[in-house]
Amino acid sequence: MKYLDEFSDPVLARRLFAEIQRITTQKWAVMEVCGGQTHAIIRNGIDQLLPNEVELIHGPGCPVCVTPLGMIDKALEIASQADVIFCSFGDMLRVPGSARDLFGVKSRGGDVRVVYSPLDAVALAEANPHKQVVFFAIGFETTAPANAMAVYLAKERGLKNFTVLVSHVLVPPAIEAIVRSPTSRVDGFLAAGHVCSVMGTWQYGPLVAKYRVPIVVTGFEPLDVLQGIRQVVIQLENGRAELENAYERVVSERGNQPAQAMVSKVFDVCDRQWRGIGEISGSGWCLSDDYREFDAEARFDVVHVDAPESDICRSGEVLQGLIKPNECAAFGQQCSPRTPLGATMVSSEGACAAYYQYRRLSGTPVGV
Ligand code: SF4
Questions:
Q1: Which of 125, 135, 350, 355 has its CA 20 to 30 A from that of 59?
Q2: What are the helix (H) ranges across 157-190?
Q3: Å from CA of 108 to ligand 1 middle
């Protein structure tokens, strides 16, 4: 199949593995930022086929994973209220809050609906004027334009019964927080191709210049991932730190300008809490003053709702590459995809969930 088979060609993959082997002379730790890349790496065994010197660290780019537990509890509290239609993409329904998940609310009579676009939620609000319709707007820069468009249309159409529960996060501040962390081991980054398809590559140049760290914009098929790793390793071996684009068939320097304009119209940059990491300054989008009336947290008075993370969970260390998922004592025991204790087990794109799904039940500890 075009764009799939051709980027999974085993002959070309072997060539790339061989070249990475040939050019690598010392240890390097490369972080793939995106959960989709993590999934591709583990599913295809890419990390196991690389030379021992090249270690992949699984980053925080799984939007379901990094949505804080407190935000899930806010969603559950709103969805439980009478006369509310709570709309979400399907992957959030089984994410557990402190005591239950959205499926649990639905099974007790809550009107929780899976939608395939935030615009479906706008249509539901128009069709149900006596109900409050709430859309769970989570994700990275990739999902933000459509969510912004939904809010924009709701305002244009004068909808008074539509709100969004916003938990948007941004990649560049997360990369900066990782680079600045005193415990960081990351030598270079594979940036998330789909985020860059919206935002372009221009945001990453200042990070490369400031921290002298290579960033290569990378796709999601096996050859895309290998090409990204190859370009990072070439830079590291040659003492270079540059921004490169290994996903040119999708990503341009300036990105999708109309999408960026829509996001800027509806959202402002704000500080954001990341599950497993903590608060990162300027790492999220919140509704701007012009669209504050669509804020579900304010309308349903759940701003105060919060929840502590499990004190057993070591996902913060997983996300910084300090341990691998199977080095956590809870991995596969108290913590599994059915009973996730932390960020990186919550979604199938999380590193712990990927290790569990592909039976990486034990492995070589980090740094050995
Ligand atoms: S296995 Fe579970 S408890 Fe351990 S770090 Fe991963 S998510 Fe946290």
A1: 135
A2: 171-180
A3: 29
H or E element at residue 31 = strand 28-34
Structural domain total, the chain: 2
Q: 235: domain range? A: 1-313
For each of the chain's 368 residues, which pLDDT tens digit applies?
Answer: 666 677 888 999 999 999 999 999 999 999 999 989 998 999 999 999 999 999 999 888 888 888 999 999 999 999 999 999 999 998 898 888 988 899 999 999 999 999 999 999 999 999 999 999 999 999 999 999 999 999 999 999 999 999 999 999 999 999 999 999 998 899 999 999 999 999 999 999 999 999 999 999 999 999 999 999 999 999 999 999 999 999 999 999 999 999 999 999 999 999 999 988 889 999 999 999 999 999 999 999 999 999 888 889 898 788 777 889 999 999 999 999 988 888 788 887 889 999 999 887 765 444 43
Name residue 153's amino acid.
L
Cα 10 to middle of ligand 1, angstroms: 33
Count of other CB atoms within 10 angstroms of residue 229: 28
The atom number, within ligand 1, closest to the CA of 342 reads: 7
Q: Which residues pair with 84 in a beta bridge?
A: 132
Whether the model pTM is above 0.70: yes
Question: Comparing C-alpha atoms, which of 31, 6, 1 is closest to residue 191?
Answer: 31
Cβ-contact 83, 57 below 8 angstroms: no
Residue 348 belongs to a domain: yes
- Report residue 331 as tokens: 């991995």
Answer yes or no: do 165 and 17 share one domain: yes
Cα gap 295→288, rounded to integer Å: 10
Cβ of residue 189 lying under 6 Å from some atom of ligand 1: no
* Domain contains 305: yes
- Asked if 216 and 58 touch (Cβ cutoff 8 Å), the reply is no
CATH (domain of 70): 3.40.50.11740
The CA 343 to ligand 1 mean position distance, Å, reads 7
Any ligand 1 atom below 6 A from CB of 69: no
Is residue 198 located within the same domain as residue 335? no
Measured from the Cα of 345, ligand 1's closest atom is: 7
Does 18 reside within a domain? yes
Exposure string of 1-11, with b = 16+ CB inside 10 Å and e = fewer, is: eeeeeebbeee
